[in-house]
């Protein structure tokens, strides 16, 4: 990170300024093993030193130190000092200084701007590899793993943490290995893998310097133990809170209160949950830590909702939504994906350049060997004619090699262009499939929405007639009270029906708008029974709009105890619409092929919850799928439908949505000539969100 500065003098320990573990030591342990007063004195000393004359490279190290110690207290100041350090290092062309100040800036921005933090880490990784500073490489992999952890991408975070530990231990970076092992334990605990979490927590304690017990150590210990015994976890979180308060580390305080509040919520101790979450939110707001503002406000929303205190829940929901939109907006996610894609392409390009260099080296080696052999032959025979002949042979060889090289490069360019065109075509076909599913849905909506609109129109006319009759009765000298009450009752019932069917039409239109969204959709708790029922009716109505003679026996066996499932409803809606359309197509084809009256098309939709998962089945008694092609149905562009009636992308996209987008399973069982059943399995997911 930066040199140790002797407070009050500004003199750097230059021999130790780039010690292998100093970056992570200052970043994690320096503010944690100090008292609040000693940390304040250190900040004052560093700020006084910044006003004294010193070499510019030392000033870079001083700015880096200031950013590191401000990270736990004032994130704005930490970011400002780190940016100043990067700017000065770039101006001085000070590579080491830029590497460590950029690392510090990336760590601070992880709480505010994930895409920019990832971009800085990737840039720093390239610098660290160029400088062959492998302890810095280990630290950068740790930071990138933390970003993946914040995004709840725990498997990728685990890969990066393990890579960091391996490199750190190979370069005697025990402190970095200890910190990373603690985060690795945290990642396994978040995946409910308690054994692995306990293993790496123990490994972390072995690697930490003997006698040092920091606030973050207690915090990590609490997270690991919470999965085994929540009461033990609460004990360690409270110990961490006390230590964070002692050193005035608001960042750590907001994290510890969040995890403690989460345990109270799990144990239904709502008052304690609200108190801890409010304390964590207050600390996070003082430092402007968007991530912990989001987590603590979400816990307050859940607690107040359970207490039916809607005003308080609404207040904190506004805070939660503002923090979530700032941290995880679609623009931020797109920027992060773009950064990762650019890095992947850059790495791929470097590998290709390496392969080309090795190829050229081999060719040049062969040419050098051929030249050497020809030279020996010329010296041996001392014959000019044979020399000329050898030169002609060498020239032919060079021409052939050049020609072959040109042909290879031409073929490579052609293949790259073809691959680019294929990728573009694939994206167009995927979009076409999505639009096709929207067209199928629109036909059903047009047919389905006609019924409520007809009811609204008819009931409006009836209501007008009732009003006229009521007016006539009121104009009579002796109005009949019983008739008047009866007319008012009929009018009220008519208006209630108008309202009901208007709401029905409104829900159909909203469903169509939700399905037509271009993005992948945000996951939210969804009534899967209602979603399955709605799309079945829309798909059936769409088919009936095209073929009015077609009828089918629709069976719904929906689990009445099914709880809301955390899914992207428009994406799962596309999956359901595709499965329903395929089922209707299969039974329709079998009906056309059979004798009239001998076959009754049937489609059955079943939902069932068991063992923490929810299962949805779509069964039909249609034509079935031949066994020889059953293993190909999820392949892109594979279809059994006639040309022009299917893109071959429906089941492929559906499979990706279920397995990759939602972490579920999608299985199929079919008997040719008898029918097909698709089974989708999804897991219940809590609303705690990404760490």
UniProtKB/TrEMBL annotation:
It catalyses: ATP + protein L-histidine = ADP + protein N-phospho-L-histidine. It comes from the Bacteria. CDD domains: HisKA. Keywords: Coiled coil, Membrane, Phosphoprotein, TPR repeat, Transmembrane, Transmembrane helix. InterPro entries: HATPase_C_sf, HATPase_dom, His_kinase_dom, HisK_dim/P_dom, HisK_dim/P_sf, Sig_transdc_His_kin-like_C, TPR-like_helical_dom_sf, TPR_rpt. The keyword Membrane applies. This is histidine kinase. It comes from Nibrella viscosa.
């Amino acid at each position: 990170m930066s040199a140790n500065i002797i407070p009050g003098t500004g003199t750097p320990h230059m021999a130790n300024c780039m010690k292998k573990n100093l970056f992570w030591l200052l970043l994690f342990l320096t503010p944690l093993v100090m008292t609040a007063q000693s940390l304040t004195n250190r900040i004052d000393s560093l700020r006084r030193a910044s006003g004294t004359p010193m070499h510019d490279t030392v000033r870079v190290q001083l700015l880096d130190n200031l950013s590191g110690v401000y990270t736990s207290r004032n994130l704005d100041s930490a970011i400002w000092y780190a940016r100043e350090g990067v700017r000065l290092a770039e101006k001085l062309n000070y590579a080491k200084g830029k590497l460590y100040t950029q690392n510090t800036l990336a760590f601070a921005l992880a709480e505010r701007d994930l895409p920019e933090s990832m971009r800085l880490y990737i840039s720093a990784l390239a610098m660290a590899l160029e400088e062959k500073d492998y302890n810095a490489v280990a630290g950068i992999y740790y930071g990138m793993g933390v970003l993946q952890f914040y995004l709840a991408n725990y498997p990728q975070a685990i890969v990066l943490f393990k890579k960091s530990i391996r490199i750190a231990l190979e370069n005697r970076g025990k402190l970095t290995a200890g910190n990373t092992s603690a985060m690795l334990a945290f990642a396994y605990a978040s995946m409910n893998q308690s054994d692995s979490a306990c293993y790496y927590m123990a490994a972390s304690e072995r690697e930490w310097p003997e006698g040092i017990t920091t606030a973050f150590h207690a915090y990590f210990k609490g997270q690991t133990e919470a999965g085994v015994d929540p009461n033990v976890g609460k004990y360690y979180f409270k110990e961490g809170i006390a230590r964070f308060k002692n050193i005035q580390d608001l960042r750590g305080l907001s994290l510890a209160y969040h995890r403690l509040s989460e345990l109270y919520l799990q144990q239904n101790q709502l008052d304690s949950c609200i108190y801890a979450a409010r304390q964590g939110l207050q600390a996070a707001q003082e430092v402007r830590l968007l991530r912990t503002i989001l987590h603590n406000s979400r816990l307050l929303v859940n607690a107040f909702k359970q207490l039916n205190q809607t005003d308080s829940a609404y207040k904190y929901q506004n805070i939660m939504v503002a923090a979530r939109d700032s941290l995880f907006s679609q623009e931020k996610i797109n920027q992060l994906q773009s950064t990762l894609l650019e890095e992947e392409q850059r790495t791929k390009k470097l590998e290709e350049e390496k392969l080309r260099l090795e190829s050229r080296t081999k060719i040049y080696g062969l040419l050098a060997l051929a030249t050497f052999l020809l030279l020996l032959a010329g010296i041996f025979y001392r014959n000019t004619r044979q020399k000329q002949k050898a030169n002609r042979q060498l020239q032919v060889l060079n021409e052939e090699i050049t020609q072959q090289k040109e042909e290879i490069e031409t073929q490579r360019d052609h293949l790259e262009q073809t691959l680019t065109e294929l990728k573009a075509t694939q994206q167009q076909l995927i979009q076409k499939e999505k639009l096709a599913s929207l067209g199928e849905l629109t036909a059903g909506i047009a047919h389905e929405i006609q019924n409520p609109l007809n009811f609204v129109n008819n009931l409006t006319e009836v209501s007008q007639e009732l009003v006229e009759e009521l007016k006539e009765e009121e104009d009579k000298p002796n109005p009949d009270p019983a008739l008047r009450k009866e007319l008012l009752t009929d009018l009220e019932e008519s208006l209630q029906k108008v309202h009901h069917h208007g709401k029905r039409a409104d829900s159909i239109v909203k469903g169509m708008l939700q399905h037509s969204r271009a993005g992948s959709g945000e996951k939210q708790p969804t009534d899967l029974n209602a979603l399955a029922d709605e799309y079945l009716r829309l798909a059936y109505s769409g088919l009936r709009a095209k073929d009015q003679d077609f009828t089918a026996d629709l069976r719904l066996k929906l689990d009445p105890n099914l709880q809301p499932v955390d899914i992207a409803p428009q994406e799962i809606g596309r999956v359901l619409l595709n499965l329903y359309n395929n089922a209707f197509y299969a039974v329709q084809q079998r009906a056309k092929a059979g004798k009239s009256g001998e076959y009754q098309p049937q489609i059955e939709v079943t939902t069932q919850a068991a063992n923490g998962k929810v299962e949805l089945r779509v069964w039909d008694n249609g034509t079935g799928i031949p066994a020889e092609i059953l293993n190909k149905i999820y392949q892109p562009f594979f279809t059994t439908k006639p040309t022009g009636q299917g893109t071959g992308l429906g089941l492929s996209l559906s499979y990706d949505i279920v397995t990759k987008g939602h972490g579920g399973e999608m299985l199929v069982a079919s008997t040719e000539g008898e029918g097909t059943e698709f089974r989708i399995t999804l897991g219940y997911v809590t609303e705690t969100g990404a760490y």
